Amino acid sequence: MPLINPFQPISRLSLSSRSLFSPLFKVVAARNPWNLHQHRDHSLLHHNLNTIVSNPSKSLIRYRQIHSINPIWRDSKALTNYEAPKLPATINQHNVAVGSTIAGGKVATTITKETLLSQANNPWERFAIRSKWFLIKGYRPFNIDEISAFFSWFILSHIIWVILGTTTFFSLLFYGLNSLFAKELVGKLTGKFISWLNPSFDIKFEDAVVPEWKDGMIDFKKVKITTVDDKGLKLDLKADHIKLTLSFKKYYHIKGMIENVEIHGLTGTIDRRDMNSNESEVDWFTNKNYELGNLKILDSFLKIYPKNGEKPLEFAIYNCELPKVRIQWLLVDFFNASTITGSVNNSLYTIHKRQHKYAYVSDIEDDLNPWKRITRLKLDPIDIDALGLNGTQFNWLVDGKADITADIMQPVIEDDEITSSKYIVVDFKIQFNDLKAKIPTEEPAFSNGEKLISMEDLKPIISYVNNKRTESFETSSPNILPPLNFRVVKKLDDLENVSTLSECKLLDLISTEIYIDWLKHVHEYEIEQRNKRIAMWSKTVASQLLVVGIGAMA
After folding, report:
1. Which of 91, 202, 205, 209 has its CA 20 to 30 Å from the CA of residue 141?
2. Any transmembrane segments, and where (predicted)?
3. What is the rounded CA–CA span in Å between residue 225 and residue 206?
């Protein structure tokens, strides 16, 4: 009987050698050690064996690949007496014993996670094994589809991160940059990048850019902001700290990316002298839809130069908190401040929510309707030149001080509601002290040049002011004029895209009401003086008659 070369393909065996495999299937079927008729691999093995016996030339299975005839058989007797190896009794749902797999006539060992972990040499290898097993349930190299999926999820997760946690994303970005590079270099490059986004400004960070994990804000230290253009509004500001949060949602709605801002130690100058008298500060901003969710300014000092070239206003801000700041509604949001305290030319001012006289009533909200809130502005005695009252409207005032109290009532406005039918109401109480007046060379006029009051009506007011001053000297009493009380009503849409009282013509309305109330006081003063003269004349006549009568009797 010829010997069989185990490494020779079956298709190349001689016909006499092929007859050796005829009893193979019978032997395997008779012994059936694996219970093959109960498993799916039975048909595969049956097909392979029949192919070997009937048509070996078409078989793709080599002799050495059949595990059941792994020994080098040399005769049919040895093949008949062969006993198959025993497999474990436990078989999984894929008909594969734990620790081995039967597929296509092969028996291959299955690698489990526990096996890989037991062979790992260090924690890094164990971490890599657990990570790969979690992702692909194996420890093979990643294919191109898996790499592209990981890359897509990486990009998508970062996009979601930027949208949902914009501040956290940039905080970690700055934290990483500070770890890799010098903090001063990061601050310098950040300032150049922001200046490139806003060509009108030159922004420099003299210190590091550090994320503030406690408050969840990004902290910029020692920031310097200056304007590049020499015309129009000029800014030269420095801040010790600028903390802010970012919002992708606001940026998507073209309202700016900055959500909340907190400024500490702001100092510098704001120069408005080169601005056109008809130009508004709001027009200076390119994006009028810009909004801030919350603005806080603490321990700051600013020097503001007005357009008319008068003395600068020295603004000290101790605490300023605005719940919302919109470029389109700067004046309205200023009136709606939560609290503002500070000083103007060493005169204290406060803006806060007014304490209602019926605050103890539970239905205070109904009592305040239809007003959203009532804000009280209180300004301690301040020089009239600092307020600009010695300008065209009050060019006859030389010296004096004014104590101002204003209750600002704003209507309730829904987001989609038209503001043309809404009004803002302001109740003023102005107390003038130590006024000194003179006859002006020109009649007082509005901001547009129209005549405000004639000289005939102005002269009694000037006489009234100077007489009050003289009386105070004679009696050695304070020169305090009676308070002026009046109300100003303005359409709310007239306050859009304005930043000062003069731009919305509100200062003209205030000046008109001041003159009207002053004329009332002058009229009352003249009546009082006439009554005094009549009483004095009556006393004089009566005393003279008494003297004449007594003389006649004598």
Report:
1. 91
2. 150-175
3. 11
